[in-house]
Amino acid sequence: MIVVLKPNHNPSQMESLISWLREKNITIHTSVGQANTILGLVGDTSQLDVDLIAALDIVEDVKRVQEPYKNANRKFHPEDTVIQVGNTQVGGGNLTIMAGPCSVESEEQAVAVAKAVKAAGATMFRGGAFNSRTSPYAFWGMGERGLAYLKAARDETGLPIVTELTDINQLALFRDVDVIQIGTRNMQNVDLLKAVGHQDKPVVLKRGRSATYEEWLMSAEYIMAGGNENVILCERGIRTFESYTRNTLDLASIPVLRRLTHLPVIVDPSHATGKYWLVDSLAMGAVAAGADGVQIEVHNDPAHALCDGPLALKLDAFTPLAGKLLALHAALKGMEGQA
Amino acid sequence: MIVVLKPNHNPSQMESLISWLREKNITIHTSVGQANTILGLVGDTSQLDVDLIAALDIVEDVKRVQEPYKNANRKFHPEDTVIQVGNTQVGGGNLTIMAGPCSVESEEQAVAVAKAVKAAGATMFRGGAFNSRTSPYAFWGMGERGLAYLKAARDETGLPIVTELTDINQLALFRDVDVIQIGTRNMQNVDLLKAVGHQDKPVVLKRGRSATYEEWLMSAEYIMAGGNENVILCERGIRTFESYTRNTLDLASIPVLRRLTHLPVIVDPSHATGKYWLVDSLAMGAVAAGADGVQIEVHNDPAHALCDGPLALKLDAFTPLAGKLLALHAALKGMEGQA
Amino acid sequence: MIVVLKPNHNPSQMESLISWLREKNITIHTSVGQANTILGLVGDTSQLDVDLIAALDIVEDVKRVQEPYKNANRKFHPEDTVIQVGNTQVGGGNLTIMAGPCSVESEEQAVAVAKAVKAAGATMFRGGAFNSRTSPYAFWGMGERGLAYLKAARDETGLPIVTELTDINQLALFRDVDVIQIGTRNMQNVDLLKAVGHQDKPVVLKRGRSATYEEWLMSAEYIMAGGNENVILCERGIRTFESYTRNTLDLASIPVLRRLTHLPVIVDPSHATGKYWLVDSLAMGAVAAGADGVQIEVHNDPAHALCDGPLALKLDAFTPLAGKLLALHAALKGMEGQA
Amino acid sequence: MIVVLKPNHNPSQMESLISWLREKNITIHTSVGQANTILGLVGDTSQLDVDLIAALDIVEDVKRVQEPYKNANRKFHPEDTVIQVGNTQVGGGNLTIMAGPCSVESEEQAVAVAKAVKAAGATMFRGGAFNSRTSPYAFWGMGERGLAYLKAARDETGLPIVTELTDINQLALFRDVDVIQIGTRNMQNVDLLKAVGHQDKPVVLKRGRSATYEEWLMSAEYIMAGGNENVILCERGIRTFESYTRNTLDLASIPVLRRLTHLPVIVDPSHATGKYWLVDSLAMGAVAAGADGVQIEVHNDPAHALCDGPLALKLDAFTPLAGKLLALHAALKGMEGQA
Fold first, then answer.
1. Which of A209, A240, A242, A260 would you mutate first to test chain C, the one with the most C CBs within 10 A?
2. How far is the C-alpha of A330 from the C-alpha of A324, rounded, in Å?
3. SS3 letters across chain A
4. Residue B280 and residue D11: Cα distance in Å, rounded?
5. ipTM of the complex
């Protein structure tokens, strides 16, 4: 940590700051410049509150050198995390394809879509039972019945199921789910983060619409601090001035997170734009940029889906896309082999 | 609602769309242009799902004419809502000044700060007992003990108390609080919104860091749909590309919300920027722009506050600011009288 | 165009608006709803000023149905534009790879880099002679001498040259350049746009850092309105709240522009992030998402480049990347063949 | 400047970096930590290129301590700059009110509006002769004739005139103008900045729609580096995700710039939102937050203005607003006197 002192600061204040830091076993290197004095703080600076130091009268600026997250940090965990879910793995060079409807609406629909996406190449079945919506007048999901339909789809296909948790009081119902998803509106719902950190199912953590990489990783850190290290990060677009699309997919998040963390990174091209006709290009782009997988909304009849219809691909568009994603993934492996 | 059909759409698809709409008692006016056919939908269009219609093959675009919120809409409730809290009112031409520390730390601190802000002109005492933080390693608040300190401060000063709720399971503890605050991270935590909608204490609803006016009002609608009409909206800065300040205060939210809704609007200049030395100018600007009040972090010793030190004004800076705000409010009333 | 009138508007004002529109040969369809009256305007509405109509007392809202650009609009020009530059083509299924240094620094450097990028597979040589910089104290480019070095590189390799124009007074010097680039800071420098519209060299038009798709296409329209239809759009990242990267690459711009316009679309992954180690993933993602090409900063010695060193790939990283991009492009063509 | 080296860097690379810096008369203080080595650079670091150093193999991060602007920096010029324009002053505790139409349309209109705004309390007359527009099909201004109308308005009223320059080739025509305005689209048109830096008329420099404070001050620095120190900064809203308003007024820019620079800061509430009914609140807020003035679009007939009608106040709304702004400014001076 680097502390820049104000020009003409009071030397006795500087002395008392330095004493206070030394009590905390921090070593201080002082550089006296013409305009500013700079303190280089060495030791376990993760215990220091940056904002508190920045608020001191004599301090002009504080700059952190170390990232504030530890469990999620690749520096302390260099190897990629690979997460086993049923018979499939997320990370480690595998291509995960999660597909299914925004909301499950009936057992027939759930089973039919699950069979079709499995046939196309999907590795997990996703579907909503408890939906988080912007409007109190929108469809809220089937709740517990929805979870039963998801399990029926798993029984028929063997695909692990992924579904969103919106309230800690639902957690007991999720005992038989394979992967718990935390949605974008709840990325900083810390009570929810702590709850999924104290159980051991893998968690898909969607990026908040306006979360920086660091804030997103701090939310992963909340989960991991509770003991659950099976976190899958899911980029789903951020909010920008461009309103033609619902959000702006941040493609750079893939290689940036690859460097900052050992956790797997997948991409949701459906919510990233809010338009089904953009899903194909964005899914292909995400895989070519190195994503560990994609999460795609697929519906047998998007025009009559009870929620998020405009995002969903029809089954007959999903099948060729899944084929292209698998072919692309194979082609990329081939290129790596040559390089 | 206006539905723009694609050029060269299939006439039989158009017929089936029109029949489906008529079944829902919607009247349709058709305008056939050179490039596009436009359907004007008249009737109770709030029951229609914009996204679902937009996903139909023959539809190019759907444009809503009516706002999706009702209870919060000034069109259906033209008079300003005025909220009684203890002996003080929010809205209706009053200037509400909520002041106090980010976290209450002890009974002595809470009482001392409450007495001082009351003497300066504050009308409510705010303080955190359950804090929502970005980092799992930051200070989390005193919890139930913090609530007791707040009540002690109220007992000593008579100031109503405002404090943040972060988890529905805490609600029982809040029975004796005067105003419940929903923080920016929880603006779309719909379970929390529904919970505070089913009780009758006034709610301060902070704007989500990346929430549009409409999304913010939809969150108010969640609370009001449960029966609680006592919602105070609090602008606290939005996330933009400018990173010198923590957020960007959106001053226009004050007159925009005045037009869209009948609910009172206050401003939090402390969190809007993250720098205590900007609070004075922003609080003055907010009051001059017509805000019903401000919420200001005040601390007896900001450099040693357990959280958000850099935001907090010292007591000796708050007192003259409160004086200026009251003088400004009086001067503005005088100008209105003359105009 | 759709005009929504205010509830309780004055009928005589509505009559005078309708008469005024009819004089302009606009046909009006009126839908009277419970809350609002809606006018559907049919005819050549491109002559109408949306803002002027929106400012009328009786108007609540105006919604445009037609895009405001014509020459750039795919609706009026369904086939892809393919632009011939020397022996190479931009658009039409070709993969354009523009590569070279931010600034040309010497004839030796220019020729050496041009030879190397050609060997790797680049189809054009890019390099700056007149650089647009944020700081008045930064390096400004070699100017006219820089143009001479670029031409020397073309003479040696046969690669067409692309270079940035920053001032209309330089235009005479650009007579022998193959493609003129308009930089992000100048996307709305309308005098520059008009100047390159009145000559016939192809133009690479970079997206402004905060330009919407529509504003970007309106800038293309400026160039095309002058008679020059050879415009290549270049996505180079937009400004968002995420400050870890210099900008956020907007991957969706590729399929969105493919739908809105017939002009070719390329991507600059170097400026999109400001970090050389992100270029590989973003370039791959862009090609997989359907871009017509990429523009990549390449330098023989980035650490000592006179400008934008952190963006530039070293030659020994560019060569395998160009190979991967060509292999990816071939693989994608193969998949299309099968689909 | 602070340079953070990568863990496990090569010591000989560090030695060569240190030698290179010493040749430039930079003193280096080295702090060796457990994870990182930090170099504190002391001396004239403004000559060093941050990006170049950041690109070195052994460097993890570079953090600048000094701002990159000098002439505009309050640290090197502590007193406020006060700019004399005709009989009026900008800065120094004065309230500047620039008012007038987006475009001057006739001599009669210009004179009539100028007389009216003067009577209301305006201190300068603003009006466009050369307008910068997003669409090539929009109204472009009256050009040289417009300048003549502006001068006629000055002759009749004595108000200094402010008008926008969009092209360096127009500069000769501006010899008789009082204040030159650089618009938001041209904030980084460096050729224009250099041109107005080499003449001595005061310049209103509008903030670019997506410019940071630092970039804006770097553009002021371009002008000042040419010798012209009379720069007035004008906040006019930044681009954010909120699309209800055209831009988001950044109120914090006023106190932030007050600290960073000695130049006067005014606010344009008309372009900040694009809606005339928001101008009153935002102008009041800006003055209460400490702005040195405002720039307001005023038109005798906004609904028929040739451009930007929705922004403009009618004369009969401007007069009471100007009265309120002057009363507010007087009231604020009174409060200061007491404090």
1. A242
2. 10
3. CEEEECCCCCHHHHHHHHHHHHHCCCEEEEEECCCCEEEEEECCHHHCCHHHHHCCCCEEEEECCCCCCCCCEHHHCCCCCCEEECCEEECCCCCEEEEECCECCCHHHHHHHHHHHHHHCCCEEECECCCCCCCCCCCCCCCHHHHHHHHHHHHHHCCCEEEECCCHHHHHHHHHCCEEEECHHHCCCHHHHHHHHCCCCCEEEECCCCCCHHHHHHHHHHHHHCCCCCEEEEECCECCCCCCCCCECECCHHHHHHHHECCCEEECCCCCCCCHHHHHHHHHHHHHCCCCEEEEEEECCHHHCCCCHHHCEEHHHHHHHHHHHHHHHHHHHHHHHHC
4. 50
5. 0.91
User: DSSP characters for D61-115?
Assistant: EEE--S-S-STTBGGG--SPP-EEETTEEESTT--EEEEE-SB---HHHHHHHHH
Residues of B in contact with D256 (CB under 8 A): 244-245, 278
The upper half-sphere exposure of residue B325, i.e. CA atoms within 13 Å in the direction of its Cβ, equals: 35
> Chain B partners of C240 at a C-beta cutoff of 8 Å?
241
Measure A252 CA to nearest chain C CA, in Å.
7
pLDDT in tens, A267-305: 999 988 888 899 999 999 999 999 999 999 998 776 665
Q: How far apart are CA C313 and CA C307, in angstroms?
A: 13
Model confidence, pTM: 0.91
Min Cα–Cα distance to chain D from C79, Å = 24
Which residues sit opposite A206 in a β-bridge? A234
Q: Which candidate from C51, C137, C309 shows the least CB-CB separation from D309?
A: C51
How many residue pairs from chains A and B have C-beta atoms closer than 8 A?
107
Strand bridging mode C2-5 / C37-42: antiparallel
Residue A55 at interface with chain D, using a CB cutoff of 8 Å: no
Cβ contacts of residue C146 below 8 Å, gap of 6+? C103, C104, C127, C128, C129, C130, C163
Q: Is the pLDDT of residue A254 over 90?
A: yes
Of B288, B293, B295, the residue nearest B318 (C-alpha)? B295
Q: Give kind and range of the element (H or E) at residue B161.
A: strand B161-164
Residues of chain B with pLDDT under 50: none
The bridge status of strand D96-100 relative to strand C27-32 is: unpaired
Q: Which two tokens stand for residue C10?
A: 């004055």
**Per DSSP, what are the bridge partners of residue D101?**
none
Report the C-alpha gap between A55 and A3 in whole angstroms. 11
- Residue D228's Cβ-side half-sphere holds a number of Cα atoms within 13 Å equal to 22
Instruction: Please tell me if residue B320 touches chain D, with a CB cutoff of 8 Å.
Output: yes
Q: How many CB atoms lie within 10 A of CB B214?
A: 18
> CB under 8 Å, gap of 24 or more: what pairs does B15-19 form?
B17/B56, B17/B58, B17/B59
CA of B214 to nearest chain C CA: how many angstroms apart? 16
The angle formed by the CA atoms of residues D20, D24 and D27, to the nearest 5 degrees, is: 85
Q: What are the tokens at A178? A: 């394979």
Instruction: State the nearest Cα–Cα gap between D95 and chain C, in angstroms.
Output: 29
- Region class of C43: left (phi > 0), else alpha (psi between -120 and 50), else beta: left
pLDDT in tens, D160-216: 999 999 988 899 999 999 999 999 999 999 889 999 999 999 999 999 999 999 999
Hey, is the C-beta of B189 within 8 angstroms of any chain A C-beta?
yes
Residue of B54, B170, B25, B164 whose CA lies nearest to B104 = B164
The Cα B231–Cα B220 span in angstroms is 7
Model pLDDT for residues C171-211, shown as the tens digit of each residue: 999 999 999 999 999 999 988 999 999 999 999 999 999 99
Do A203 and A232 touch, CB atoms closer than 8 A? yes
Q: Which of B264-268, C66-70, C101-105 has the highest mean pLDDT?
A: B264-268
